[in-house]
Amino acid sequence: MARRHRRYGRVGAAVAAAGAALGAGFGVCGCSGGGAAAQGAPGGDPVAVLRQAADRLVAAGSSQARTSMEMASGGTRVTIRGEGVYDFRERLGRLKVLLPPDPTGDSERRPITELLAPGALYMKNRGAGVPADKWVRVDTATLSDGNLVTGGATDPLAAAEVLRGTRTASYAGRTEVAGTRVRHYRGTADLADAARGASAGNLDSLAAAARGFATAEVPFDVYLDDEGRIRKIRHRFSFVNGRERDTVAVASTTLLYDFGAPVAVRLPDDADIYAGKIAEERPQN
Question: Within the chain, which residues score under 70 in pLDDT?
Fold first, then answer.
């Protein structure tokens, strides 16, 4: 049976985990650096170093990952956390995403299991009328944020490939992340540039994000170990809420560790994918 791909529009109801977390959902809608490229930065020109950071992860093979996504709009602020593993060579990952408590306090939200694959996001325990034993599949290229926000966690390789669009960068010095000595860089990336340099699995998604966000420019802070691998990366995205037309600020942080960790991800069979209508969750008063 042919796999049925549900198209999710500019986010509204079908925006999965990020929307569910807010009850209503926040509707998601190559040039060298001209920034303060620090003199004496180890590893060479910061822009060149950061544009190659994703390749270092692919060479590393895999890692464990922790994610955090903070969303703020008006007086509403939520944080969604995730934890799991990712295979950078196969572009496959598995995360358990923890949603914040129900704003009414009436129910405890179950964790959402997410499987990350080239061009696709699979979610289990999506809720909103989806049977407990079924997965929801989203074609990430149809999302106006390219799944940098929608799933409540940024795909670790996509997060790294945003750096392929680095426009400006500066070296901010040495520090530590989780006990590992790292080099701290900060700068700005352009999503359209990132899409042009991205791997096949992320090209369409990053191009969609470049069109869908309020701005294609993404400020970031990133921390590289002495092998050039990303240990921590924090992006700041901005998009316009499709319902209220206000701007939503998103800070997405990915922490990578235990490189070489075993990763076993089995994508759902066609029969296990939910093909029904996803119920829209309404705001809580």
Answer: 1-42, 102-108, 127-128, 241-245, 277-285
Q: In terms of C-beta density within 10 A (0-12 exposed, 13-18 middle, 19 or more buried), how is residue 282 classed?
A: exposed
The dihedral built from the CA positions of residue 29, 2, 131 and 118, taken in this order, carries a sign that is negative
Among candidate residues 133, 35, 19, the one with its CA nearest the CA of residue 76: 19
Task: Give the single-character DSSP code of 125.
Answer: S
- 29-53 confidence digits (pLDDT tens): 433 344 433 444 667 899 999 999 9
> With b meaning 16 or more CB within 10 Å and e meaning fewer, what string describes 251-280?
ebbbbbbebeeebebeebeeeebbeeebee
pTM attached to this predicted model? 0.82
Q: Which residue in this structure is represented by tokens 């705001």?
A: 283
With CA atoms as reference, report the closest residue to 242 among 209, 206, 214: 214
